[in-house]
Design goal:
Layout (H helix, E strand, L loop, with lengths): L2 E7 L5 H14 L12 E6 L15 H13 L3 E6 L6 H7 L3 H7 L2 E4 L3 E5 L8 E5 L7 E5 L1 E5 L3 E3 L1 H4 L9 H8 L3 H15 L3 E11 L7 E11 L2 H11 L8 H8 L10 E5 L26 H10 L3 E4 L9 H5 L5 E4 L2 E4 L9 H5 L5 E4 L2 H9 L2
Parallel strand pairs: 1-12, 2-3, 2-7, 3-4, 7-10, 8-10
Antiparallel strand pairs: 1-11, 5-6, 8-9, 10-11, 13-16, 14-15
Length: 381
């Protein structure tokens, strides 16, 4: 059975243009009435990493969320907006990220994720229990609304990764610690979370995307697309290829296919709408942190050498650092401490999860590569 993904072009965030494109995208898949019934309570889950202006490409643009909310209201259903940002208060982030005007106008309530619910899995899954936000299970339907961004740990943060927001903010660091440097372990957790939340629909905001050292400190890049599917694995697979990365580099796609949760194989995905016609893969600038170290978890001596001499790692820019303590308080292995009025990283403890880079609001965490890694990279160009 094939999965259907639709890709449509949209040049900017003009409200009428976004509304028209979102309606077309949803109609490509059969119309919102396929998933939403009158009276349904519908959770809209955007990417709300932190307070950020829409022009920074850090959060899902409010125009996209507004357009989807309007389609839900057209079904005589009631939309809500929920998330659990790793930093900050959800209502404050919504206000500073431009959500308040349309939410007040449309009567949409914010739903901070604060209560935990233990979710259990069958014997065939790596993780038998995961604590997720209880609020995410209190709705008739969930619609995932991710932002198209690169990600220093997982290459891209798309539809599957977006649901990591259903992990309560204070628990996110522990998952990075449990996964360590093994991308497949973390990818498996993300796929299992997607499996349980099971959004009816995923819509990716790729009008203004982010490349480079995302998901917080990359560069905005105009891409001009909106993509959607019922199958988030297939959706991520198509978008991954569109921005010029091999699908097997996006480990959530690989694990999702292996677990039978979705389809990543291009031969079993039908691309509708504008599809990939006229939209040749455009090489996104990858995050500097994507190195072969992720795949060296069982080769300990080799991995240790690579970590010391080749692997890209976080470094603190003392000139930019405000010594606010955010990196220290959110470092999963507690590798960052304040010494003599400056933040320092203990290389023996650092697991290169890049949480510090993701959460720093002052762009003070740099991505640094040792000299040997730079030399080998130069030699293999």
């Amino acid at each position: 059975m094939q999965s259907l993904v639709t890709v449509r072009t949209c040049a900017n965030y003009d409200a009428s243009a976004v509304s028209a494109v979102l309606r077309t995208v949803v109609d490509d898949l059969g119309g919102m009435h396929r998933w939403i019934k009158p009276g349904d309570r519908v959770l809209l889950k955007p990417n709300l990493l932190k307070s950020a202006a829409p022009s920074e490409a850090v959060v899902t643009h409010p125009a996209v969320v507004e357009a989807v909310a309007a389609l839900v209201l057209d079904c005589s259903a009631r939309p809500f907006v929920g998330d659990s940002p790793p930093l900050g208060n959800l209502p404050r982030i919504l206000a500073k990220s431009g959500y308040d005007p349309f939410m007040k106008r449309m009567g949409i309530q914010a739903v901070p994720f604060t209560r935990k619910r233990v979710v259990e899995f069958s014997d065939g899954r790596l993780f038998r229990r995961i604590d997720l936000a209880a609020e995410a299970f209190e709705f008739d339907a969930v619609i995932s609304l991710p932002k198209l961004k690169t990600h220093c740990q997982m290459l891209l943060t798309l539809a599957v990764k977006n649901l990591f927001g259903t992990v309560i903010g204070t628990d996110k660091a522990s998952w990075h610690m449990r996964s360590g440097r093994d991308a497949d372990t973390f990818a498996t957790a993300l796929v299992q979370i997607y499996e349980k939340i099971h959004p009816r629909l995923s819509v990716i905001d790729g009008i203004l995307a982010m490349e480079g050292n995302g998901p917080n400190s990359g560069q905005p890049r105009q891409l001009g697309i909106v993509a959607a599917s019922e199958d988030a694995i297939a959706l991520d697979s198509v978008v991954c290829r569109l921005v010029g990365f091999p699908v097997d580099a996006l480990r959530t796609c690989v694990i999702g296919e292996q677990l039978g949760v979705g389809t990543a194989d291009p031969d079993r995905i039908e691309v509708a709408g504008d599809g990939l016609q006229g939209l040749p893969p455009v090489k996104f600038k990858p995050p500097k942190s994507m190195t072969v170290a992720w795949n060296m978890s069982r080769l300990n001596p080799i991995r240790r050498f690579m970590e010391n001499h080749m692997v890209i790692r976080p470094a603190i820019d003392a000139a930019a650092c405000k010594v606010c303590g955010t990196c220290e308080s959110h470092c999963p292995p507690h590798a960052i401490t304040q010494v003599a009025g400056a933040m320092t990283i203990d290389r023996r403890k650092c697991i290169s999860c890049f949480c510090c880079h993701e959460l720093c609001s002052h762009d003070a965490i740099r991505i640094q590569q040792p000299a040997l890694g730079r030399l080998l990279g130069y030699m293999t160009r």
